[in-house]
C-alpha cells in the first residue's frame, strides 16, 4: 500500500492533463494519508464531458460515515474489492473515478531485513496519473462539504519490480504474498477511466510494465510531518525555605 507521494506543481498538472488548477487551495509538497491533495475527475457541473481538478482529503470518506475523521484507513483500496467493499462499492458503481497526479511515490523495501523506503518516478519523465475513487460527504449538522479520494492498488506478486516492495509474510509462498502496486492510467486512457462504463474502467485495472518504473532507495525518510510540541511553561523558581 502506498502511504506517501509527492504531487506535481500546478503547471505540470495543466500541461499533462490539459486542465487548469485555478480556484483551488494549495496542497502540501508531500502528501500522507488524511492530508489534502489534488485529484482530477469528470466535472460534476458540466453537461458535456469535461475534467476538473479538486483538492480533497487523501482517505475516502464513505457515505455512511458519522464524521469526516475515520477510525479506519481508506487511503488505499484493493481494486479486487471495489464492487463489494462497503466504503467503495457505491463510488465505483456510480463511476466516481479520478486521476491522482503524482511526481513520485514511495514504497517500503524489506530485502535487507529492515525497512528501506524507495522512491519511484516514471521512466519517461512525465508525472504519474494514478487510478483512484472520489466521494463527496456532507456533514448533516453543519452542512460542510468534504471532498476525499482513495488510491487504487492491484496484486503485484508477479511483477518483477513491485513484488520486491513491502514486508514479506514468511508463512506464505512467493506467489501468495499479495504484494500491491499502484495503477497508472496512461494519457490516452484518461477519458476512458473518467467517463467510461464500469466494464470499460475495469479493463484499465492492470499492472504497468516494469520498464515504466524508475525506482531507487529514497534519500528522504517517508515519515509524516509531526506537529510541533507547544512550548513548556518554565517552573517558577523556588523561594528559600519553602518546600
How would you characterize this protein structure?
With 243 residues, this protein is mainly beta. It has a single domain (5-217), classed as Alpha-Beta Complex (hypothetical protein yedk fold), CATH 3.90.1680.10. It has helices at 10-17, 89-93, 190-195, 198-202; strands at residues 5-6, 36-42, 51-58, 76-78, 97-102, 104-109, 116-122, 128-138, 145-155, 180-182, 213-217. The strands form two sheets. A five-stranded mixed barrel has the order 2-3-9-8-5. It has a four-stranded antiparallel β-sheet with strand order 1-6-7-11, with no helix packed on it. A hairpin with an 8-residue loop joins strand 2 (36-42) and strand 3 (51-58).
Largest sheet: 5 strands, mixed, barrel
The count of helical stretches stands at 4
Number of strands: 11
The total domain count is 1
Task: Please state the structural category.
Answer: mainly beta
Low-confidence stretches: 228-243
> What's the shape?
globular
Q: At CATH's second level, what is the architecture?
A: Alpha-Beta Complex
Strand content: 25-35%
Biggest sheet, spatial arrangement of strands:
2-3-9-8-5
Order of SSEs, N→C? Answer: EHEEEHEEEEEEHHE
CATH level 3 topology: hypothetical protein yedk fold
Identify the notable features of this structure and list them briefly.
single chain, mainly beta, hypothetical protein yedk fold, 5-stranded mixed β-barrel, 4-stranded antiparallel β-sheet, 28% strand, globular, disordered C terminus
